[in-house]
Specification:
- This protein is α+β, with helices and mostly antiparallel strands.
- It folds into 4 domains: 189 residues, CorA soluble domain-like (Beta Polymerase, domain 2), CATH 3.30.460.20; 132 residues, Recoverin, domain 1 (Orthogonal Bundle); 175 residues, no CATH class; 57 residues, Up-down Bundle (Methane Monooxygenase Hydroxylase, Chain G, domain 1), CATH 1.20.58.
- It contains 20 helices and 14 strands.
- It has an 8-stranded mixed sheet with strand order 2-9-8-10-14-13-12-11, sandwiched between helices. Strands 1-3 form a two-stranded antiparallel ribbon.
- Helix 3 packs antiparallel against helix 7, helix 14 packs across helix 17 and helix 18 runs antiparallel to helix 19.
- The N and C termini lie far apart (82 Å).
- It is a multi-pass membrane protein.
- GO terms for molecular function: calcium ion binding; cobalt ion binding; cobalt ion transmembrane transporter activity; magnesium ion binding; magnesium ion transmembrane transporter activity.
- Keywords: Calcium, Cell membrane, Coiled coil, Ion transport, Magnesium, Membrane, Transmembrane, Transmembrane helix, Transport.
- Pfam families: CorA.
Length: 606
């Protein structure tokens, strides 16, 4: 038993291949009863050469090997007191600022309009390469690729960063100057600022603001090895670490954040140099979640909506309804083959049972969620972010379970033999899989609605149809943009348009198109039910009018006779007979009987 971490190497796979055993990894199970979530991985049927790591450990970054986390922690950061006047006084005159130039794209042949340094200082967690490059050229005379130690010091002062009195500046700058050329290059400047900002977010003033309702999981894998940490407990060590050299891809999954407490997301933004626009889209999730795919200089950003069943119990009920409907359709096909008579209503399915079934399907899904995916420029690290904590809320989107437990952790996983693009494809596929039962259940729902419409007639509640229409529209608003995203954007990208990635992405596209087709069919079925309900109500109204007409026709002779004998003539012989009243009723009954016989036997109107 290993807690939080496990390791599989090539020896394990060879042993499994020799024994023809593909059940080497049992699915990790997570305790969802509390906040102290820890995945327990049991490795069975494996004899590995090396011992699995029992503790959580991370590889330190090699960008600035001499500049440690402790050094970054000791730096003083006075970001709030940086003013535009102070910046201009330390950097130089406006003329000098205009003289120094540099292109965001590394093109020094054309001068670009300089931004005020105060603009470049905001926001705090924006450490994208383009922004830091422009900031670096504010401190670099004539746009050179390196600055002296003094110029580097002025640049740090402009950023509000200063070396504490207990630390010698030359000792500090020598740790940043990795190549020892007595100057600070752009890469060294970027890594230095990145580490200092990251360290600032781990100071006690910030760490006290973090809530425990978040889970960070990390997995490093290659075709021959896989190492997972779930959850990450040593956040600081991880944020200052780098992907191990043996791993081809690292997947980082953050479950749980909110706009008021986005500290971990800001830490990840500094670590992976996330663009502020992408980070804003991730934090500010609107009610109308839309698909988005954007290329930035340091990473690629993908946002997709996730529509899921309301609860886990609702998911099981939906699956049961789908299975029952499939069995019913199979029985109908078998009855057609045997030429048996088909029942209009399945045996044992009463009106009360239909109403109970439809009431259970009254509310199907949650509000749409947003899944954000970031892929680094090197295409070797993937960051996925979801708002809900899947260890606290059992109905949350269990993305880690869907991709890692049911795919990546298996010994025969195809995912580990491919790059980051295939992982992104798997994440998108997991979101698409959540939509499938929501679309399929409408076939069973409309069948039950059809039975209920015919059984109840005019007593049928038409609000059921209106509610089903709203649900169909809500699902279509998710499916249609996903189809456009996969077909028109992802398949046009080089990383998704080659090899197995292209084939599997086309499979995802086909599934989405099938769902779009099913939704159109469901809308047609709904329109047919609405039309059938209208016809039933119109027929009922016609029956009422017909009955009223027959009754009125029966009383018409009586009305005529009453009018005749109610006239005020003195000489009406029948009025003075002893049995005139009974004769009147006898004649009326005879006339009505003849009228009914005429309508029934001759005209066949009743």
């Amino acid at each position: 038993m290993y807690n939080r971490a496990f390791w599989i190497d090539l020896t394990c796979l060879k042993n499994m291949a020799n024994s023809n055993d593909y059940t080497s990894l049992k699915t990790p199970t997570a305790s969802r009863s509390g906040l102290t979530d820890a995945f327990t991985i049991e490795v069975s049927h494996i004899v590995a050469d090396g011992a699995a790591p029992a503790v959580e450990s991370w590889d330190a970054k090699a960008a600035l090997p001499k500049f440690t986390v402790e050094d970054a922690m000791n730096m003083e950061w006075d970001y709030a007191n940086v003013t535009k006047k102070d910046v201009q006084a330390r950097v130089g005159s406006v003329k000098e600022l205009r003289a120094s130039y540099g292109s965001e794209f590394g093109d020094h042949h054309e001068k670009e309009t300089k931004e005020a340094l105060g603009v470049l200082l905001d926001p705090f967690y924006d450490v994208t390469t383009g922004r830091l490059r422009r900031m670096f050229h504010h401190f670099s005379p004539q746009g050179k690729d390196a600055v002296s130690y003094d110029e580097f010091q002025h640049g740090l002062h402009a950023l509000g960063i200063s070396v504490p009195a207990t630390v010698n500046f030359k000792d500090f700058v020598r740790k940043v100057d990795t190549n020892g050329d007595n100057s600070i290059g752009l890469d060294e400047f970027i890594h230095c600022v990145q580490m200092i900002k990251q360290a600032h977010l781990f100071k006690p003033d910030n760490t006290n603001l973090v809530t425990e309702e978040h889970v960070l999981r990390v997995v490093d894998y290659s075709p021959t090895s896989i190492h997972a940490v779930a959850p990450v407990t040593k956040l600081q060590s991880f944020m200052f670490s780098s992907k191990p050299t043996w791993a081809s891809v690292r997947w980082v999954h953050l479950a749980g954040f909110n706009k008021q407490d986005d500290l971990n997301l800001r830490r990840l933004a500094i670590k992976y140099q996330l663009h502020p626009l992408a980070l804003d889209d991730c934090l500010n999730q609107s009610d109308k979640i839309r698909c988005k795919y954007e290329h930035y200089e340091d990473h690629t950003f993908l946002a997709i909506p996730v529509l899921r069943p309301l609860t886990a119990a609702k998911r099981r009920h939906i699956d049961a309804c789908i299975d029952d409907h499939r069995q019913t359709m199979f029985n109908k096909r078998q009855a057609l083959v045997r030429e048996d008579s088909l029942q209009t209503l399945p045996a044992g399915l009463t009106e009360a049972a239909l109403e109970a079934k439809l009431d259970d399907l009254k509310i199907l899904m949650r509000e749409p969620e947003q899944l954000c995916i970031f892929v680094t420029k090197a295409n070797d690290e993937v960051l996925s972010v979801q708002a809900d904590v899947d260890t606290v809320d059992a109905s949350a989107f269990a993305l880690w379970d869907a991709v890692f437990d049911h795919n990546m952790a298996k010994s025969y996983s195809k995912l580990r033999t491919h790059g980051a693009s295939f992982l992104v494809l798997s994440l998108v596929g997991a979101a698409v899989d959540e939509l499938v039962p929501l679309v399929e259940v409408f076939e069973a729902k409309f069948e039950a609605l059809g039975y209920l419409v015919r059984l109840q007639g005019i007593k049928f509640d038409v609000k059921r149809l209106a509610r089903a229409k709203k649900q169909l529209v809500a699902i279509e608003k998710i499916v249609r943009p996903l189809v456009d995203l996969v077909a028109d954007q992802l398949l046009d990208q080089d990383e998704f348009n080659k090899g197995d990635v292209k084939s599997y992405l086309r499979d995802v596209k086909d599934r989405l198109k099938m769902m779009a087709t099913d939704l159109r069919d469901h809308q047609q079925s709904l329109a047919n039910l609405v039309e059938e309900d209208k016809q039933i109500r119109a027929q009922s109204q016609a029956d009422v009018l017909y009955t009223v007409s027959v009754v009125a026709a029966c009383f018409l002779p009586g009305t005529f006779m009453t009018g005749v004998y109610g006239m005020n003539f003195r000489n009406i012989p029948e009025l003075h007979t002893d049995y005139g009243y009974f004769v009147w009723w006898g004649v009326l009954v005879f006339v009505v009987a003849c009228l009914l016989a005429y309508l029934k036997l001759y005209k066949h109107w009743i």
